[in-house]
């Protein structure tokens, strides 16, 4: 097991530590490939990266990004689309070249083709150097929901009722939450050279413990990270409270 765990006292500190790790990867290799995540957890670390760009000259000019997932059925201009999220929280505030930022193509009706294209684009870029992950309350990473096996590649998923319910807080009503998403597979995520998982709040405490200290099972998709050679988990005190 090669998971390094950092329990920060607060959300702000968790965000700073995680942003420092990403900034370090960018400084070390300005043309690095970052895998990025959405959700409320990384908002603070993106704000810190924007601050580092503004105050410390951290440059994303040569960085390429691939987001984990995207809702099917939302245009990139929809405020709850992950494309929009990334622009709002990071891309529009730093010097990144938007042409080098990617999300799974949810407009393409041919699922197999969209999946192949995303995997190939990642491969052509040289693979992901550092993949940022949040974690769902049911252990999902990206939108890889609990299942009987670990999906290998980018694919379309039907979201579980609990995930739709959890994410409905960001929509006007549960009805508006998309039923499907396209996500990197567990195989895609595991091919990243390095993984950084962030989690905060007491609602994540049990799943963080199960993912890091429980059995490796597709019923807790994030548990597969125990088999990755280079994972850093940064959580706040509330999310880390059950870790031994
Ligand atoms: C969403 C995203 C995940 C994210 C998770 C947790 O469904 N697809 O990538 O990690 O939920 O979200 P939050 O950080 O808001 O708890």
Mean pLDDT: 96
Counted beta strands: 10
| Count of helix runs | 8
Span between termini? 14 Å
SSE topology:
Blueprint: E1 3-8, H1 11-28, E2 33-36, H2 43-56, E3 64-67, E4 69-71, H3 82-89, E5 101-102, H4 111-124, E6 130-133, E7 155-158, H5 161-167, E8 180-183, H6 186-190, E9 194-199, H7 205-213, E10 231-236, H8 237-240
Parallel strand pairs: 1-10, 2-3, 2-6, 3-5, 6-9, 9-10
Antiparallel strand pairs: 4-8, 7-8
Question: Describe it for me?
Answer:
The two termini are 14 Å apart. The relative contact order is 0.19. This protein is α/β, with parallel strands linked by helices and 244 residues long. Helix 1 crosses helix 2. It has 8 helices and 10 strands. It is globular, with a radius of gyration of 17 Å. Strands 1-10-9-6-2-3-5 form a 7-stranded parallel beta sheet, with helices on both faces. Helix 7 links the parallel strand 9 and strand 10. It binds 2-amino-2-deoxy-6-O-phosphono-alpha-D-glucopyranose. The site of 2-amino-2-deoxy-6-O-phosphono-alpha-D-glucopyranose has 14 residues, from helix 5.
